[in-house]
Amino acid sequence: MVRVKRNSGHVVGDDVVVAGEVLKQMPRKTELRRRDARGGIHLVAANLDVLGIVVAPDPPSGFIDRAIVAARVAALQPFLVVNKCDLAETADLLGKVKNTYTGSVPIFPVSAAHKSGLEEVQHFLGVGHRGAFVGTTGVGKSSLLNVLCPEIGLKVGALSDYKGLGRHTTTVSTLHALSGGGELVDTPGFRDFGLVEISEEDLAIFFPGFEEHDGISCRFRNCRHRSEPGCAVAEQVNQGIIHAERYATYLEILTEVEKEQAEFRSKGWKNQ
C-alpha cells in the first residue's frame, strides 16, 4: 500500500505507475471539475466517460443544464437519474424532465428507497462505463450507490432543518466497481455546479435542446444565439420549436458565462 498525500495532485480515477513509494501519474483522458459558490475550482475525478446527474424534487434553477454542459465540454456523456420516484411530488419533476431533455440525454426514473428502476441504470453502466453521480445534497446519491454497490455501506444522512437540504455525508471521492460491470465514483455532495472554463461558444454548442434539428444550423459557426443574423435557435424559438422558457434559461447562463469571461480577461490584463 502506498500512501497518497492530500496535496499530491492525484485524484480518484487517475492511472498511475507505482515505483516503490512513488506514484507516477499517467496522462488523463478526461477530467471532471466544478466551481463552488466561492469561485474555487475542484478536480472531482479523472478518466470518466459518463456523468450521472441525480435530481429529486425542487432542484436548483439551472443545475441540470449546467451539469449537462459541464459534462459535454469535459467529453463525458451525461445521463439523468430522477430519484425518489416513489414520492408523489416527484411526478411533476419527472414530467418536466422528460418534456425538456428527452432526445438530448438518457433519462432513468428510479427510487433508491424502493430499489426500483435501478436495473436500467446497471445495464447502462455495465457495458464498461466509468462514471460519477453528481447532484445537490439530499437527492440520494449515497443511497443509489448503496443499492448499486451494497458492500460499500455509505452513510446516509437525515435531512436538515435548513430548507430540507441533506447533510453532507461523503467527504472524499472514492471509486467502486459494480457487480454487473462498470465503475462509479462517489463524490461529496454539493449545492452548486458552477461551470469551469466554459466559453460562450461552448455553451452555445452544448446547451441541451439546442442540438441541430433536421440539418438546420446557424449561419455563423460561432453564433451565441443572442442577436446574430441567421440564428437557427432564435428562429426555432419564434416558431415555438424551442420553448421560450428554455431560451430564457440559456440567456441567463450565457450572461453568467460572459461575465466570468470578462473578469478572467480583466485579471489577465492586470497581471501583464
TrEMBL record:
Record localization: Cytoplasm
Major localisation: cytoplasm
Enzyme class label: hydrolase
PROSITE patterns in alphabetical order: ENGC_GTPASE (PS50936)
Domain EngC GTPase: 46-191
InterPro entries listed in its UniProt record: P-loop_NTPase, Ribosome_biogen_GTPase_RsgA, RsgA_GTPase_dom
Textual note on the cofactor: Binds 1 zinc ion per subunit.
Pfam families xrefs: RsgA_GTPase (PF03193)
Residue ranges of the TM segments: none
Alphabetical keyword list: Cytoplasm, GTP-binding, Hydrolase, Metal-binding, Nucleotide-binding, Ribosome biogenesis, RNA-binding, rRNA-binding, Zinc
Binding site for Zn(2+): 218, 223, 225, 231
The protein's required cofactors: Zn(2+)
Family: Belongs to the TRAFAC class YlqF/YawG GTPase family. RsgA subfamily.
NCBIfam families linked: ribosome small subunit-dependent GTPase A
Family matches, as PANTHER family: SMALL RIBOSOMAL SUBUNIT BIOGENESIS GTPASE RSGA, SMALL RIBOSOMAL SUBUNIT BIOGENESIS GTPASE RSGA 1, MITOCHONDRIAL-RELATED
Function: One of several proteins that assist in the late maturation steps of the functional core of the 30S ribosomal subunit. Helps release RbfA from mature subunits. May play a role in the assembly of ribosomal proteins into the subunit. Circularly permuted GTPase that catalyzes slow GTP hydrolysis, GTPase activity is stimulated by the 30S ribosomal subunit.
Protein known as: Small ribosomal subunit biogenesis GTPase RsgA
Organism whose genome encodes this protein: Pelotalea chapellei
